Amino acid sequence: MYETALPAPLHDALLALLGPAGFLTQATDTSPYCTDWRALYHGRCAAVLRPATTEECAKAVALCHAHGVPMVPQGGNTSMVGGATPDGSGRAVVVSTTRMRQVIAIEHADLTMTVEAGVTLKAAQDAAAAEGLLFPLSISSEGSADIGGILSTNAGGNNTVRYGNARELALGLQAVLPDGTVLDLMRRLRKDNTGYALRQLLIGAEGTLGIITRAIIQLQPAPRSRETALCAVADAKAALDLFAAFRREDPSAIQAFEFMSGVSMGLVNTLIEGASLPLAQPAPAYALVELASPRAGNSLRELMEDVLGHALETGLVSDAVLAESEAQRLDLWKLREEHAEAQKRAGASVKNDVSVPLPAIPTLIAQATAACEALIPGIRVAPFGHIGDGNIHFNLVQPEGADPEAFLAQDHAIMDTVAAIVRKLDGSFSAEHGVGQLKTYLMPSWRGGAELTTMHRIKNAIDPANLMNPGKIFPPDRGTSPRKLPPTHP
């Protein structure tokens, strides 16, 4: 006998279609697909479907649709908000795209790459680099996050300030709709005014409208010169002023501009092996600046030295170090990329992925810091993130020696405290991580009225039976609440 709640006819049809490698039903095989990356949510599924082609995916979805079985699309399973985790009912199947791993084509004339959804971001970056090109999207989970999931969540990352989010990098898509219909939008056109831009509905929909199976993504010429610097600054206002100084000189040269608080950097230097602050002494805050150009030469070094030289003279920057090699550049980026891991090792943490207009960032950090410290004395306020595009990960780490579960029990109070300040500043409660199932309760107050009603109408038109990733983005029915289980670790 098989270990699944699926009807026997559906089980047999899916097994015949996908084969043993594409149809997992034993709990030991399916359990890794039922827990999110942060271990906040623990669900169950009737089976994991692993189609190897768009055609297999479409046939499998059509079978599930005919039997009324909910489907949870899943890529690399790196969601920060439980967006790819099934609920606890065990009724749904997880539809994983990880077997669709082909880089189909790279076109130099129009700088595009055609890939299947299961290609990881790192694999796409490497394929582009082998052709002397750049896939510019960069996130910390790029080794496991895949293209389908990145587009479904409209991922952002370190280089958004220059190249935009995933939405700006996608020209064409292919997707399987909730009834198994294949929607083919694979057009490498930058100009195409022929009705609604349907691909934009799928990008950022978090798998609630369909499963992306292929994509055409835009590439860039690979940088031939790059300069990276870590700067010590007094606060977020100084970091923003430094960003403005670089932007005045040459906005096209800025590839990344990241902010790190002194508290968060202190955790990295204390808890991450091999991390070392290459400055004379710790600072209240830091900015990581990266300039890049497809042109060879030393113009970027001159630009970096000119801007930083003036900033040091005026006191805007108290200290700075420039990478003199690729190894040193990677060391500087390690100081930025290890913030999430350092906070995890420091204990339980509550993550707020928020965005506000650039001028409001200093106010956000100051007011949210004061409010959270008043809410929980001893809390460690550890913001960092993509200050160049207004996205701050305003993370809060438990007080030293506090009980992790007791701290996490206050997560909604902490999130609401930060969100109230973000709202006053005309920001968003989710900048790049999405809504998933963690933040559905915020949707009515933030996106209610005509906006949420229109989203419901689109969802109902494409997926009237609510079979595609149910429980994500949209708030639960009145009288119910999101199913959140205690995490197994902070």
TrEMBL record:
Domain FAD-binding PCMH-type intervals: 41-222
PROSITE patterns xrefs: FAD_PCMH
Cofactor dependence: FAD
Record keywords, A-Z: FAD, Flavoprotein
Gene Ontology biological-process annotations: respiratory electron transport chain
Segments of this protein annotated with the region Disordered: 469-490
InterPro entries according to UniProt: FAD-bd_oxidored_4_C, FAD-bd_PCMH, FAD-bd_PCMH-like_sf, FAD-bd_PCMH_sub1, FAD-bd_PCMH_sub2, FAD-linked_Oxase-like_C, FAD-oxidored/transferase_4, Oxid_FAD_bind_N
Gene3D superfamilies, alphabetized: 3.30.465.10, 3.30.70.2190, 3.30.70.2740, Uridine Diphospho-n-acetylenolpyruvylglucosamine Reductase, domain 2, Vanillyl-alcohol Oxidase, Chain A, domain 4
Keyword match Flavoprotein: yes
SUPFAM superfamilies (alphabetical): FAD-binding/transporter-associated domain-like, FAD-linked oxidases, C-terminal domain
A GO MF label: FAD binding
Similarity field: Belongs to the FAD-binding oxidoreductase/transferase type 4 family.
Protein name (database record): FAD-binding oxidoreductase
Organism annotation: Acetobacter garciniae
